[in-house]
Amino acid sequence: MAGLLYHVFSSSALVSLGLYHLICTTKNHLKSPRDYSARPYHPLPCGPLRLRHLQLYLLILCLLLTFAHQTLVSSESDPLLKGRTPVHRFTSLQSAAVLFLFLVLSLALLLSESTPLLPPLPPDLFFGVASALFFLHYSVSSASASVQTSDLQAECDRVSAGVSALSSVLCLVLACNPRLFVADAGLASSLCLQGLWVLQTGLSLHVDAFIPEGCHKLLDVVSGVEGSTKCDLEDSKLRAVAILDLVFVVHVLFVLLILMVTYTAVAKTLGIGGIRGFGSYEVLPTVDLNHNHIQMKAMSGTQA
């Protein structure tokens, strides 16, 4: 139960962060497309100065909790291998180290924006560092998937690594060209997708109704660490992997729907949009009928 609650908490934090960034990014782009530039974060538009950085406070709190969770998980024992598992411990510590780096980056951003201790961080520097951290998360998730003894956990880690790689590429694009709205909206969407997949991972590993047929949780594993979910046959494993891939495609479609609905809602709120051809029109060029009439008469006289 604790593992499922952790996944729900992480999913809520990622989805809310991505959705908030998507709304603010779309709003800034629609207000002034020519002056648009990607920002590391968007403060609240009103309220006291400290409350305007509420997003960073919540982000730092979530990173602290997840870092503490990964650190504690690394010390848990794995009953399947009779004692503490070195592989499980090292992969958990690697995840905790990556989360700690994200925490340091968030603290640096908060200090640079709210105090004179640090100079303001340039957007290209922030996105460049974020790209490196997402790539580290991709490497850790890929390594965890390769050594994972749980069939479902390995597939979930592999998909999560792919989403982190996408976020890394988008951050790198924004570091090179911060005026690219598509990359900024894609980064926000990738955060939402990662959050939805974290929730799917928790459901697939800890809720019996979401475990594919032919796979099951082992009864001697209480904490849900590596090896807690097994598939009886190779065909069952392949079927479970195919189901997870199909569910991931459904999540991608859902994120695309969120993107389109958010863009439409923000545009309607700002009063931008409408049916083309009815909301505005272009003046057609004036046709000189007399000039054409003279040309026609000249042509008729020539033929005669």
UniProtKB/TrEMBL annotation:
Question: What is the source species?
Answer: Cinchona calisaya
Major localization class? membrane
Q: Which family does it belong to?
A: Belongs to the TMEM45 family.
Naming one, the record's GO cellular component terms include: membrane
Q: How does it sit in the membrane?
A: Multi-pass membrane protein
Which InterPro entries does the record associate with it? Answer: DUF716
Signal peptide boundaries: none
- State the UniProt keywords alphabetically: Membrane, Transmembrane, Transmembrane helix
Entry's Pfam families? DUF716 (PF04819)
Transmembrane regions listed in the UniProt entry: 6-24, 93-111, 123-140, 242-266
Q: Where in the cell is it found?
A: Membrane
What are the coiled-coil residue ranges?
A: none
Q: Tell me the protein's name.
A: Plant viral-response family protein
